[in-house]
Amino acid sequence: MFGKDVEIPFLDKKIETAPREEIERIQLAGLKNQIKAALRTDFYRKKYKDLGITEDTVSTLDDIRKLPFTTKNDLRDAYPFGLLAVPKDDVVRLHASSGTTGAATVIYLTQKDLDMAADTMARSLRAAGCSRQDILQNMMTYGLFTGGLGLHYGAEKLGMMVVPTSSGNTIRQIKFMKDFGTTVVHATPSYLLHLHAAIEESGSLRSDFKLRKAIAGAEPHSEELRRKIERTLGIEVYNNYGMSEMNGPGPAIECVFRNGMHIWEDRYIAEIIDPETLEPVPEGETGELVLTILCRDAMPLIRYRTRDLTRFITEPCECGRTHRKIARLTGRTDDMLIINGVNVFPSQIEEVLLRTKGVGANYFIIVDKNGVLDKLTVQVEITPEMFADDSRLINALRDRLRSEMAALITINPVVEIKQPGSLPVSEGKAKRVDDRRPKD
Length: 440
Ligand code: ADP
Ligand code: ZN
Hints:
By secondary structure, the chain is of the alpha/beta class.
């Protein structure tokens, strides 16, 4: 599609293709600035004072390793205002994480910070091929969660027409998509699957829609799931990564080559570490992503441990951007289930489900105790066609799923086949795991 003669979309080509030395110069200056800002917060002032850290601690980018990490727990300890670096009166917005893994954490933004966040988001949307000709329907929840307003402001900045439907009410979503000729949607991958099923059910035709792209983020999903959505909805799906702590969905997105997400390195410093040793992993190996935000005055976050697992893609991108790419996230360090001593990621289970014909839109994982042993149950919705079929075929599907999962994760799961539409659909991030083992 984007051959040599076709123009690749940029918002700010100069910075997006800047030489590495220039990006690194910006990063070093930004880091020093953030240390100065950090010293204005109660939280970092205390922490850095004890360690004797000032902006002079870093004279090269590698010196970032002299700074301690910041964790999600630190954010909780600093709640509500311990990380504020500007007078409260300068704050114009507060956001919070969706609290997937515990109490929600908050961030603050000044007007300048909000403008920067919108600009970063606009850059991301443009990189994914969106333009002012597009009509974007934002199906992420509006409110504290940044997937709503965070993306919204960036889309407006790019000049897109934004339809802020927020999440849920699928029938109205479909009606609006048809009536306004929505060309781009922003949603979680699991909601996109649900949307497809609802469109089928409504009897609408592909020709009723002008949809061409989806920006998909907020939860881990596999390459197989992306392909499935692309195939069934007949659109391009762009992986988009972010989190409230880093201003929302802007920091990293796939360009039109859809092969890894560029991180905007003039605005974020990305490191990938071994979550056990806390040392950097060799370039290209998987580890925990650590981010430092450089484009926020109100609330610095330096070497923030995202707990998300990824790797740098070392090959340069065909689009010409010099900002490095990260691979699709394989999950969070705290997503990992330890089942009878074996490490299992939900994404591995999803991988098997998605490559298997007859498997439907939704699944659910339950971990339980069976005596002293852990028991893994995978509930799988099947497609309406499969459900209407012979029970022998359904049994064969169950056996096949069980043996393919066992081969991949080395644990024998119980596979329960479920009727289409019988598992709960979440409006925000999909909750796919219920660990019922007693915690002690
Ligand atoms: P919470 O930590 O409460 O879920 P957020 O709502 O800010 O807070 O969600 C951010 C998290 O969502 C990220 O740390 C990551 O785990 C997940 N996430 C966001 N985008 C993606 C994506 N494209 N792929 C995988 N995971 C993602
Ligand atoms: Zn690219």
